[in-house]
Amino acid sequence: MTQRKIYTKTGDDGSTSLFGGKRMSKGSLRIAAYGTVDELNSFVGLCRSHAPGGDTDAFLGRVQSDLFRIGAELASGDVSAGGAYVPVGEEDVESLEAAIDSMDAGLEPLRNFILPGGHPAAASAHAARSVCRRAERLIVELSGGEGVRPVVITYMNRLSDALFMAARKINASAKIADVQWLGGKGDPRGSAGKSGESGPENKK
Q: What's the pTM value of the predicted model, to 2 decimals?
């Protein structure tokens, strides 16, 4: 059997194919949107590679599958294209919300902003959260000129919150205190029970 080569050379002119065969510039907004979703999926995978397993790993595995579904939808521009996947829906948003509530229930209340860091898995989750926000912004921009289902934007908005909570849960499980941001009034220090969101970017 002849093995298929990974390179096709069809993109050497700066274009790529959407699902269905339509050619489009790699510099287009749609390519940037689903490419950033792919980048986000890689960061979630990085987080999983550092995470100890258990419920958090299972949750992140579901997120990776959801992101593939969103990427497929954005890469086709047609939710019904091919019928090879089930598009994300309100039930997936509700699943994220349930995960957020579950993680939040076991953590100290938020009181101050925190700096990304701590356990390598938590730091990776924070990185994923910021990439998620960038992907969301691109999808919102895309929706201004092309059809994007509102639930995709809702899912991405909720996912950044879920990744923030995952980072906090990972640190708490590892007995690593979140690091407070002191507003320039001193060196940042870990302080259990005095945590806040990682920055203004996540106040949505």
A: 0.83
